[in-house]
Amino acid sequence: MLGRLRQMLIKEFLHVIRDKRARALLFGPPIIQTLVFGYAATLEIKHVPVAIVDYDNSQASRDLVSRFQASRYFEVRRIADRREVADLIDRSEATMALQINSGFSRQLHKGETAHLQVIVDASNSNTALVGLGYVNQVAQGFARDVRMAALQRQAPALAASLPEIVVERRPWYNPDLTSQWFFVPGVIGNLVLVIVVTLTAFAVVREREIGTLEQIMVTPIRRTEFILGKTIPFFLIGLLDTALISLAGTLWFRVPLTGSFLVLAAGTVCFILCMLGVGLFISTVSATQQQAMVTSFFFIMPAVIFSGFGSPISSMPLLLQRLTYLNPLRYQEVVLRSVYLKGVGFEVLWPQMAAMALIAIVMLTVSVLRFRKSLE
Amino acid sequence: MSAPENTIELNGLTKSFPGVRAVDGLTFAVRRGEIFGLVGPDGAGKTTTMRMLAGVMAPDQGSATVAGFDLARDAERAKHHISYMPQRFGLYEELTVDENIRFYADLFGVPRREREERSAELLKAAGMAEFRSRLAGKLSGGMKQKLGLVCALIHTPKVILLDEPTNGVDPVSRRDFWRILYTLLDQGVTILTTTAYLDEAERCHRVALLHEGRMLFCDTPANLKASLPGAVLSIVCADPRPVRDLLAGVEGISTVMIVGDGLHLVVRDPQRMIPELRSRIAAAGLPCDTIEQVAPSIEDLFVEAVQGDQANQGDQANHGDLADPGPGQRRDRGDER
Question: Do A215 and B79 count as a contact with CB atoms less than 8 A apart?
Answer without folding.
Answer: no
